[in-house]
Amino acid sequence: FQVKSENRKTIWNTEEVPEGAEFDDTWDPREQPEYQILFKQCVGTEDVFFGMSRKDPSTACCEDMVIKIKLPETKYSDIALDIQDKVLDLRTPQKKLLLHLPYRVDSKNGKAHFLSEEETLEVTLRVSRMFDFINFL
């Protein structure tokens, strides 16, 4: 039996722990709200009518990720939102959402907007992929 780590007192390697696992809280009884992940793409006439760019309808060509979270009976002031590069952590007195995002995002430049009449929080995040400079010239 070989031990991979150099320090034999460690229980696991950091590579074995999934990213964002430090946010998991299994003892929190609050329920998870309904949510939707949508992707947004900026297109112009050259894309739609002429097909001049390399864009297609896939998520690989989308610039933004929009997360719509239903928060019934919630006030804007009760919402605590924390966004990391791969994790969205939302907490209210009644609901809790820990969402591992499908793509890495620019966590410093996102926007959140609470639509009180629809009781929905819309979070718009810029997707940050390694080769976006190729897709979006």
TrEMBL record:
The gene is Pih1d3. This is PIHD3 protein. One of its GO terms (molecular function) is dynein intermediate chain binding. One of its GO terms (biological process) is flagellated sperm motility. InterPro entries: DNAAF6, PIH1D1/2/3_CS-like. Residues 32-127 form the PIH1D1/2/3 CS-like domain. GO terms for cellular component: cytoplasm. Belongs to the PIH1 family. It comes from the Eukaryota. It comes from Phaetusa simplex (large-billed tern).
